[in-house]
Amino acid sequence: MSSDVGIGRRILLVEDDQLTRSLLAEMLESSGFVVATAPAAADARRAFRLLDPDALVLDVDLGPGPTGFDVADALLASSPHLAVLFLTNLPDSRFAGRDPDSLPPGVGYVRKEKLTSSGVLVEALDAVLRENSAAIPRDDLDPQRPMGGLSGTQIAVLRMVALGMSNEQISEARGTSSRAVRNVITRALALIGSTEDAEGSGRVAAARNYMLTAGIPLSEL
């Protein structure tokens, strides 16, 4: 793709990790985009007012506080013309408590491990800017994505296990029984190929699998 594909296009990049933010900004600027960066939601709102961007590129997990989904929703409410591209380690939006079908139409979703070159990022961003639905990446809908076969309930319970919650704490939080929680964990472990049960080493396996797939879980959804 031409190195001047971004000329005249303004991008607001929201990413909480400083090194990643710098690398992504450099990738975009080398393709001609004008880039403003922000590490969190409040900074993004200020940068948005100054830049009036054509597109948002957002991480989903921005640390404590609003997620990238929340930032996109807020800015799209006032500027529905914005193109949106999510870049994240999360296999899909359910890991941040959001149903994939509830994401705004026309958004892109790219897992960071797919960013093997600047061209991948630029092509994805160009697709959402052009509203080229055939080319817009949606890694969150890939049937082969990690833990893609789990239900929203199973993901939510594994997240709680990874946060260190006991079965009793999970059952209280979800308004169900400890037995039901054990069944959810056992079924989830079976679906991801683990033969452990829902107690002891099984809980360790559940937490390990979750964190290997999605990282340290978001503590507040």
Automatic annotation (TrEMBL):
Residue intervals of the Response regulatory domain: 10-129
Entries under Pfam families matching the protein: Response_reg
InterPro entries named in the record: CheY-like_superfamily (IPR011006), Sig_transdc_resp-reg_C-effctor (IPR016032), Sig_transdc_resp-reg_receiver (IPR001789), Tscrpt_reg_LuxR_C (IPR000792), WalR-like (IPR039420), WH-like_DNA-bd_sf (IPR036388)
UniProt keywords, alphabetically: DNA-binding
Transmembrane segments: none
UniProt keyword Ribonucleoprotein, yes or no: no
Record GO terms (molecular function): DNA binding
Coiled coil (residue ranges): none
GO biological process, one term: regulation of DNA-templated transcription
Signal peptide: none
UniProt cross-references to CDD domains, sorted A to Z: REC (cd00156)
PANTHER family on file: TWO-COMPONENT RESPONSE REGULATOR
Listed name of the protein: Unannotated protein
Species whose genome carries this gene: freshwater metagenome
